[in-house]
Amino acid sequence: MKRFLTLALLASLLVGCAGEKGVIDKNGYQLDTRHPAQAAYPRVKVLVIHYTADDFDVSLATLTDKHVSSHYLIPDVPPMHNGKPRIWQLVPEDKLAWHAGISFWRGATRINDTSIGIELENRGWQKTAGVKHFVPFSPSQINALIPLAKEIIARYDIQPQNVVAHADIAPQRKDDPGPLFPWQQLAAQGIGAWPDAGSVAFYLNGRSPYQSVDTAGLLDLLSRYGYDVTPEMTPAQQKRVIMAFQMHFRPALWNGVADAQTQAIAEALLEKYGQG
């Protein structure tokens, strides 16, 4: 009788445990999730914006083959269904997509492992007389991007400085999404980083915006913000890093030249968002 009561009590405790909040009953075992570790961090930390440099059909074919992929693809003019723009999801967010390639941001490599990639159908650029001319993004495409980006940022608590251009994380290889991408407009919507105008003016300190500054000093600021800067870089490679930064934060002039305004913007960003 005593043994029966003991078994009954144990069974009662087990049933009670299974019904407790934080205890999950599985097939063949139970999970106790009531003691979460503090040393745990989200896998997704970065949102990367790209352009496809091709039309939609070719872009879709490329992004669904065996070599490259992206989580989302947004057409130049998204088709409307029930009053809402349609976006293509090509890879579930819990799976790795091969969109960043060889990359670096804020001390981290293998950005594919920790990012969500969004591709925008856009022709990219063409050269005329040696000058790159970029294709603008349609308002309807940006309007479709905004709610998607907001949801991703909220879902993974992505910091503003970690919403980046492909060119930011791979400046030696990539230009996308280019200087016509409306980073300032998106930052006003809570998507990505943007310097405060007052801080830029403070750091500019009355200098002419295009006054030359020390290239090494500027690159040090860009390195501290998050860009990949190494001692062995050639002048051409240094210029690519500065140009990527300017396309993002000073799109009116992205010549890759170290000047006072670029320096002031970098200092204002570091003040607002901290070092990488």
Alpha-carbon distance between the termini? 67 Å
Mean pLDDT: 93
CATH architecture level-2 label of the largest domain: 3-Layer(aba) Sandwich
Low-pLDDT regions: 4-13
How would you classify the helix and strand content by structural class? alpha/beta
Number of helices: 9
Please identify the top-level CATH class of the largest domain.
Alpha Beta
Radius of gyration: 24 Å
Question: How is this structure best summarized?
Answer:
With 276 residues, the protein is an alpha/beta fold. The chain is 37% helix and 16% strand. Strand 1 (23-26) and strand 2 form a beta hairpin.
Structure, described:
The chain has helices spanning 2-18, 56-63, 139-156, 166-169, 183-188, 197-204, 215-225, 235-249, 260-273, and strands at 23-26, 29-32, 46-51, 72-74, 80-81, 84-85, 88-89, 104-105, 108-109, 115-120, 125-128, 131-134, 163-165. By secondary structure, the protein is an alpha/beta fold. It has 2 domains: 46-188, Lysozyme-like (3-Layer(aba) Sandwich); 197-273, PGBD-like superfamily/PGBD (Muramoyl-pentapeptide Carboxypeptidase, domain 1, Orthogonal Bundle), CATH 1.10.101.10. Strands 7-4-10-3-13 form a 5-stranded mixed β-sheet. A two-stranded antiparallel ribbon has the order 1-2. The longest helix is centred in the middle third of the chain and has 18 residues, at 139-156. It catalyses: Hydrolyzes the link between N-acetylmuramoyl residues and L-amino acid residues in certain cell-wall glycopeptides. This is N-acetylmuramoyl-L-alanine amidase. Belongs to the N-acetylmuramoyl-L-alanine amidase 2 family.
